[in-house]
Amino acid sequence: NNLHPTISDERREYLEKECGLTPYQPHAPPNWADPDHPSYHLFSAAILGASFAGRWYAPKIGVTRMPFTASILLVPIFYLLAINHKEKRFAYSAEGRRSLDQNLEFYPITRRAFNKAKAIREQELQ
Predict the structure, then answer these.
(1) Which of 84, 85, 91, 79 is nearest to 35 (CA)?
(2) pLDDT per position as a tens digit, 24-61
(3) What is the pTM for the complete model shown?
(4) 27, 67, 82, 123: which could form a disulfide with 35 (CB 3.0–4.6 Å)?
């Protein structure tokens, strides 16, 4: 059933020592990239502050305001995207796979359907 054959101990040792390859370990995103962490909001506030300052100062030095306006608009957009990405059913980033209970945590309708199907199946088995 495995799509990839298991690696022998000799091959694993060769890959680790000679090539410097190690098995993948899931890791958490940095705090400044996690929308649930306060440092994310401080980082976003710093970007917004610099963007508003640049937008205010741009006409004085004769440059366009457009890049500063774009960054002001993109801060909340990226926040909403980060929240959406964090609550997705499938983990596409560097984190580990979520369990069934973690997936059902954000989807109460799916949980009710799962519990109903489980009850029906248990009833069929009895």
Answers:
(1) 79
(2) 777 777 888 888 889 999 999 999 999 999 999 999 99
(3) 0.55
(4) 82
